[in-house]
Each structure stands twice: as C-alpha cells, then as structure tokens.
C-alpha cells in the first residue's frame, strides 16, 4: 500500500540532501502510515510532521532521515532514543540493524506504541520515564538520538555514550532549535557540529523544560 507515495517521498528526501542508500531504503520499506491515526493515512508520505494525539507529533520524514543519516547506525549498534512517540524513528533504526532502546515520558503514548510494536512484531526495548536521565542499565550506547527539543544537553546522556559514539539532540528555545551533533572523543570530551533550523516539541524533564 502507498508504494508510489513512498517512492515520491524518497525523491523529496534525495532533493533535500539525503544520500545514504541504506537510509533511503529504510524509508521505502517502513510504512509510515502504520504509525499515525487512520484519518491521516492519506497524508502519511508528505514531508510533514503530523499529530499523533496526546498533544504530540510524528516528526517530519526529512528530519527523521537527517538524524538517521548523521547517526548512520550499523548492524548490532546499540542506540538509545529519547521520545518514542509514534515509534517510527525507532523502527527505522531497528530496520537498519540497530538494537534500539527507546524512552517515552507520556504514559498513554508509551502504552499505545508498545501495543503497536507487539502487533507488528518489532523487538524494541521501551520504557516510560524521563529520558533526560537516560537508561543507565544498558549504557554505554553507540548512539543516542533525542527527538524532542531541550534547553541544554543532558549530562546523563553524555555520560551514557560510548567512546566514539554520537549524541544527536535539538537544543534551543521552545519554538526552534539547532541540531547539536556530539561525537565522544574522551571520557568528558566531545567534538560538536551544529546544524540550524529545526522545530521539535519540547523535551520535558529534569534536564529539559520544566513544564508541558
Ligand atoms: N521519535 C518520535 C516519532 O518517531 O514519532 C517523535 C515523537 S515527538 C516529536 C517527541 C516525543 O518526545 C513525544 O512523544 C514526547 O512525549 C516525548 N518526550 C518529551 N520529553 C521527554 C522526555 N524527557 N523523556 C522521554 N520522552 C519525552
């Protein structure tokens, strides 16, 4: 279903600078419409964020593709995602062979997406908690992707990153953020690249924004 629409989305992603063929194949194979409300299925393959209920959104495909291309997960890599939401980004990472751990703070979304993963047969470890604290039990991670925008980079996430690992997080105010891409070069040293102009829902938590 929607194969032609997915092919068109791939062309859009290519035009916007997504060149990694493995990532593009994931966008061709993973059916985004399965992660959004049925009433919006007709809009699933436009390059837009969409509402998924509980005041939250599924990110724009380009944004998911951009973060995935930067992360470039290899089979067997251990990746932590903060902000499970619809589950789409987690499944894209899983499709690329990563072992995915994902944290969602909204209990209703956590329950709904857990059920969806069970129904679709995905083995992705989910937890309902404040992702700004990370998930210490399974650290260190080869990569950490934060899919909500925070005011700063949570120290716990920096600590839980493996040497050489990448942390990708939008940082800014509540309306717009710059993508911060950190690569761990030593116990507490990082090489940072900053890419402007993203807009995410707020990262709420101990090391995020204080209220929703
Ligand atoms: N990765 C998601 C997807 O593919 O649909 C994007 C979801 S949305 C843009 C961001 C999510 O982050 C929301 O579901 C929100 O509830 C969640 N969130 C916000 N602050 C959080 C926190 N401190 N810990 C975990 N999840 C958080």
Give a verbal description of the structure.
Helix 1 packs antiparallel against helix 2. This protein has helices at residues 3-15, 21-29, 61-71, 88-95, 107-120, 155-159; strands at 50-53, 56-58, 78-82, 99-104, 125-128, 141-146, 161-172, 177-186, 189-198. The mean pLDDT is 97. The chain has six helices and nine strands; from the N terminus they run ααββαβαβαββαβββ. A seven-stranded mixed β-sheet has the order 5-4-3-6-7-8-9. The chain has a two-stranded antiparallel ribbon with strand order 1-2. The site of S-adenosylmethionine (SAM) has 26 residues, from strand 2, helix 4 and strand 4.
Q: Tell me the major beta sheet.
A: 7 strands, mixed
Supply the number of helical segments: 6
Strand content: 25-35%
Shape descriptor reads: globular
What ligand molecules are bound, each kind once? S-adenosylmethionine
The radius of gyration over CA amounts to 16 Å
Level of helix content?
25-40%
Low-confidence stretches: none
Which sequence of SSEs, written as H and E, runs from N to C? Answer: HHEEHEHEHEEHEEE
End-to-end distance: 36 Å
Main features:
212 residues, single chain, 9 strands, binds S-adenosylmethionine, two-stranded antiparallel ribbon, seven-stranded mixed β-sheet, 6 helices, alpha/beta, globular
């Amino acid at each position: 279903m929607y194969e032609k629409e997915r092919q068109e989305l791939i062309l859009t992603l290519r035009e916007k600078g997504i060149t990694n063929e493995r990532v593009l194949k994931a966008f061709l194979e993973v059916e985004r419409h399965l992660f959004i409300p049925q009433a919006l299925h007709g809009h699933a393959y436009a390059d837009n964020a969409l509402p998924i209920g509980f005041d939250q959104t599924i990110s724009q495909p380009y944004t998911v593709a951009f973060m995935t291309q930067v992360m470039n997960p290899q089979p067997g890599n251990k990746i932590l995602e903060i902000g499970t939401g619809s589950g789409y980004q987690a499944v894209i990472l899983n499709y690329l062979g990563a072992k995915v751990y994902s944290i969602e703070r909204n209990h209703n979304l956590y329950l709904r997406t857990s059920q969806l993963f069970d129904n679709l047969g995905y083995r992705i470890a989910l937890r309902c908690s404040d992702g700004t604290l990370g998930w210490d039990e399974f650290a260190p991670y080869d990569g950490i992707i934060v899919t909500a925008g925070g005011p700063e980079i949570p120290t716990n996430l920096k600590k839980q990153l493996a040497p050489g690992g990448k942390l990708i997080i939008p940082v800014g105010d509540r309306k717009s953020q710059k993508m911060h891409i950190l690569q761990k070069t030593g116990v507490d040293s990082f090489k940072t690249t900053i890419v402007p102009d993203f807009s995410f829902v707020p990262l709420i938590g101990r090391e995020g924004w204080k209220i929703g």
